[in-house]
Amino acid sequence: MVYQNTLAFSKQMDEADPLHEFKSYFYIPQHEGKDCIYFTGNSLGLQPRITTQYVQQELDDWAKLGVEGHFQAKHPWMPYHEIFPQQLSKIVGCKEAEVVVMNQLTVNLHLLMVSFYRPTQHRYKIICEAKAFPSDQYAFETQARYHGFDPADAVVEIAPREGEHALRTEDIIQTIRKHGDSVAVVLLGGINYYTGQFFDLEAISKAAHAVGAYAGFDLAHAAGNVELHLHDWNIDFACWCSYKYLNSGPGGVAGVYIHEKHIANKELPRFAGWWGYKKDTRFKMEKGFDPIPTAEGWQLSNAPILSMAAHKAALDIFEEAGMEKLHTKRKQLAGYLHYLLAEINRRHAEKVIEVITPADENERGCQVSMLMLKRGKEIFDELVKQGVIADWREPNVIRVAPVPLYNTFEEVWRFAALVDKLIS
Ligand SMILES: *Cc1c(COP(=O)(O)O)cnc(C)c1O
After folding, report:
1. Rounded Cα–Cα distance for residues 172 and 192 (Å)
2. C-alpha 259 to ligand 1 mean position (Å)
3. By C-alpha distance, which of 143, 95, 87, 139 is closest to 118?
4. All structural domains of the chain with their residue ranges
5. Over its length of 424 residues, how does the chain's per-residue pLDDT go in tens digits?
6. What is the second-level CATH architecture of the domain 7-47+322-423?
7. Ligand 1 neighbourhood includes 221 CB (under 6 angstroms)
């Protein structure tokens, strides 16, 4: 792709974009009567206009039917969660039986660790990335303690090399090999929330298995963003939230993937609840947990329908757009921003912005993390004043994520032009 640093070029890209219409499917936050440049879809995705309708349907059925809604609602609540695997399996690349929508992300991370982090005296380590998202760090730390291990010993963090920001796959694999059969589980973010680096999940999974460990990933920043093939990559388990790239609303219901080879294994320990119990005999309400032999067997509680209705609305938009088109546009949007930021650096005597997200389009998704080498906070505050919604991370990083469903090439151009003006 040959990019040009002109407003006209960006508009031309938008006109040729087969997904251009989708922006109008969303409510765009306003700033002084105009659309904001909303670049925080990696933090909270925007609200689809149809979400009200989906949620309202369930409120109406609840008003009209009460408890009978479990069977007689337009979308009966009892099997409501069963509508998700068909669409989600395409988004994360797995079989339908391998995916379930339930709870929230950190809750699911703990539940999966109950099944897949079962340390012994000799095999007890959790390998993760340094600067993992704090909630994940707390989960690893407290899981290690729960099993009687010292997190300082049990949680092994892989850090970038001196002077680098991204992790090298070879270093990840080397660390796994070095700790060998003391590793119980390798558990990284699919995409690091800070740098935006997309790890080589397949290679990491292979290295984990080679030392006899499980491989799991937190896909909070990957689901609905990058192309995933969880089943083919032989990943044991994964979880993600639905409110970032998946646009399903603040604190929305989350997703879980468990590889086919594990789903029918009743011997895997788990914390169970009635919604994971075999459906045909669940309401006999007998003693002795007998799990559904799919990822559904990890469910605990009956489904949060209002939150699921919002999730359904969002996934229907993904279905309509198609993953292939989304991936093509995502790469072009991020590629355009990388190009424009390089142009800014080129015009200055010294580098003014260090992009800490990998340049290789296979190693990143929508997000571009900019380490500001000059007046970072000042520039960020001015961007906010001018109607850009971005994200600031100490000490000096601006994270932006142009997403293919509702961001445009023109917005990317306008953003870069603004940064250029403010930095000069
Ligand atoms: C967003 C995010 C979370 C948030 O967890 P919740 O349980 O949804 O509050 C956790 N981990 C990662 C990696 C995230 O990006």
Report:
1. 14
2. 21
3. 143
4. 7-47+322-423, 55-319
5. 899 999 999 999 999 999 999 999 999 999 999 999 999 999 999 999 999 999 999 999 999 999 999 999 999 999 999 999 999 999 999 999 999 999 999 999 999 999 999 999 999 999 999 999 999 999 999 999 999 999 999 999 999 999 999 999 999 999 999 999 999 999 999 999 999 999 999 999 999 999 999 999 999 999 999 999 999 999 999 999 999 999 999 999 999 999 999 999 999 999 999 999 998 887 787 888 999 999 999 999 999 999 999 999 999 999 999 999 999 999 999 999 999 999 999 999 899 999 999 999 999 999 999 999 989 999 999 999 999 999 999 889 999 999 999 999 999 999 999 999 999 8
6. Alpha-Beta Complex (3.90)
7. yes
The residue whose two tokens read 């009743």 is 266
The Cα 328–Cα 317 span in angstroms is 16
Which of 44, 101, 104, 106 to mutate to test ligand 1, by most ligand atoms within 8 A of the CB atom?
Answer: 106
Pocket of ligand 1 contains residue 218 by CB under 6 Å: yes
Instruction: Using most ligand atoms within 8 A of CB, pick from 136, 219, 307 the residue to mutate for ligand 1.
Output: 136
133 in contact with ligand 1, CB cutoff 6 A: yes
55-319 CATH, one of 1.10.10.10, 3.40.640.10, 1.10.1610.10, 1.20.1420.30? 3.40.640.10
Cβ neighbors of 358 (< 8 A, separation 6 or more) are 166, 195, 196, 197, 198, 364
CA of 151 to the centre of ligand 1 (A): 20
Q: How far is CA 402 from the centre of its chain?
A: 15
CA separation for the pair 406, 359 (Å, rounded):
23
